[in-house]
Amino acid sequence: MTENPYRLAANAATVEPDTANESVEDFFVTRDVSDGGLHFEPHRHDTDELMWAREGRLDVRFGGRNLSLHHGHMAWIPAQVTHEATLLGDGELMCLFADTRLRPPGDRFREPHVVAASSLMGTLVHHLRDLERPRAERRKTRELLTELIATSDVREDTLAVPRDSRAAIIADELLANPADQRTLVELAESVQISPRTLARIFIAETGLSLGKWRSKARLNHSLTLLKQGHSVEGVAAGIGYRTTSSFIETFRNDFGLTRAAYRRRFLV
Closest Cα to residue 213, out of 268, 153, 263, 167? Predict the structure, then answer.
């Protein structure tokens, strides 16, 4: 199901839709719900865009970077920046499109990047979908969201996905099944390259060794399971940890927060 005018046009024609009548305001929010994945081919807008996967995993490509984002991320895409996005599996994608005159102040908002998605920011994005709200209320809601975006932290914990086709296959398989226990040798054999080559590609294209990349992929997936209400024991087993205590320790060390603190701050 989609409320995204760009995707509706892609399904019907090759031209972009006229979004001028989406709202008499200078901003609007779209929503896409996927039960098997959605893909948006490379494109750009005259408006700034804020992309947020309320549910599921979002792969975003811009500026030669391919990033895998989770619920705690929002991707800031300035106007006229070409980007591509994929919502993997079952999920929900919400996008705020806004006139560039409403852009938060600061040079960093001239470039695409990823910001921290707090619970309040997610609530405000969802709130702005309601076109029945009074215009003054919607304007104040948008202004508050802009202030929060302006002061939000840049998220550096995004997971880069390798561009090399062989390594990308491995990355997709590990993201789809975080509990996969195959060794470096076994993974390399599955795509018919040497373990040394696979290890080199991951470091060169993601900045992480395969082991550290896999650990981060598991932790990112744990956020989805925690949001869905799974027990910590179930989450640990579901992402491949042999003991619950090792998962708890790794989570705290990587995110700098306990699970309870992370849930309060980010998991709306």
Answer: 167
Spell out the residues 6+ positions from residue 46 whose beta carbon is closer than 8 angstroms to its own.
Answer: 79, 80
CA distances from 171 to 20, 75, 213, 253 (A): 40, 21, 9, 23
- The answer to whether 239 and 176 are in contact (CB under 8 A) is no
Counted residue by residue, the chain has a size of 268
Q: For residue range 145-187, what is the model confidence (pLDDT) as tens digits?
A: 999 999 998 887 788 889 899 999 999 899 889 999 999 999 9
Q: How far apart are CA 186 and CA 220, in angstroms?
A: 23
Q: Which domains does the chain have, with CATH numbers?
A: 5-151 (2.60.120.280), 161-266 (1.10.10.60)
According to DSSP, the residues that pair with 34 across neighbouring strands are: 91
Q: What is the 3-state secondary structure (H, E, C) of 32-78?
A: EEEECCEEEEEECCCCEEEEEEEEEEEEEEECCEEEEECCCEEEEEC
pTM of the model: 0.73
